[in-house]
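writing this on my phone so excuse typos. first protein, seq and then structure
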Amino acid sequence: MAPMRIETNYAKAAEFIQKAAKGGTQLAVLPEYHLTNWVPDDPKFGDLCGQWETYLNKYRALAKELNICIVPGTIVERHEDDQTKDEYLINVAYFIDKTGEILGRYQKKNLWHPERPHLTSSTHDAHEVIETPIGPVGLLICWDLAFPEAFRELIAAGAKIIIVPTFWTLSDCSEYGLSVNPRSEALFLESTITSRTFENTCAVIFVNAGGPAGSFNSNYAGLSRVAVPFLGALGEETKNSNKEGMSIVDLDMRHVEEAEANYKVREDLAREDWHYVYRHGDVKEREKL
């Protein structure tokens, strides 16, 4: 993804989606910040984010044209506060169905520390499950991956597939961490994604930014994959790569159902006497007691 080259990046994304659709793929997922890259200090960044609705509508039209569901990574949106008239930015993922309809959206909640001066979090808004043609879906974004609570709330509400558009680099690690393991962030991602799919008996569709093909010593982490219980990572073209590319994965949801039959995670979460709370609404009710 070329920094600040929004139309070029859209054209490349559309090319990948067209290729996937020709093979009969039901869902295409793009990375976080795929239209602009993450360059919030660029004076023109806010203006590009002001074009968010134009590109959202382009993806809606593309989904309808190609008869494919699309999660267009994330789109950073510029809005204006109704009262103060101050402008603010939010980072949003959408689920668009094959007719071009928006079935659901999610505004990033857990902001990575360098994002906090620039983005507005969804804070206490509940994580909501989206009913889609591929099953009940939850949307999370990048650093949300580090919070098991986000997954638990979605799973408790019925999600079976969690989609995570991401912009995660190898340099997100501290200087100390890099000194002991230059690939520490890759280890973080590989370990956490596998853990989330097992501990929640769900499928995780993790799509991270990759570097340009042919580049060496890239700072991009990549590792895009679909993870399922019993098998772990799927996606031969991208799961072990940090280069820009695409994997087409046949997701067999039987793995998810068999994992639940074995581990009974959802069954426990549904119990009235269960001893943990995962829903924002439940927390508010308990606070009233």
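second protein below, same order as before
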Amino acid sequence: MAINFRDRYAHLQEVEVAKNVLLENMLDEIDRLKSHLLDINGVLEYVDSNAFVSVLIDGDCMNFRDEFVKCAETGGQEAAQLLRSLVIDHVQSQVPDIQQNFDVVVYMYANVRGLAKAYGDAKVIQQRDDLERFIRGFNMAHALVNLIDAGNGKECSDAKLRGRDS
């Protein structure tokens, strides 16, 4: 039986072409995957750079220190700054691998009329305008800190926090 070297050589050339096509396809796939990986890394960097912690507070149950309320607008600013600082410290202690530059978004809901009456009855403020100035300072301390009048009803703040009508 005679060995046909030309046939074997032709077969090897076909295998070599198939191998080269396979390698080209693999290299194209690697380039495509690298491109997707860069896209994913970009998204992850964006997500990391826009991280935030949201804090929801029932202001009817969590009263401010009298000394803050007495200082009106300045006290409101100090209270908001202290709250943000404490939240940042707490989050960093509880989530050690969190990025350092995250935002804190605060929504405090309260029955402002009820708070004004309570602070007035306790002689913390002289008139309702004193509490309004405190709230103004609180809200102005940072763009993401908000004390919102939830309404005059007993459960208005609770309803806001639950996201349902009372």
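The longest helix spans residues 5-49. thats all i got for now
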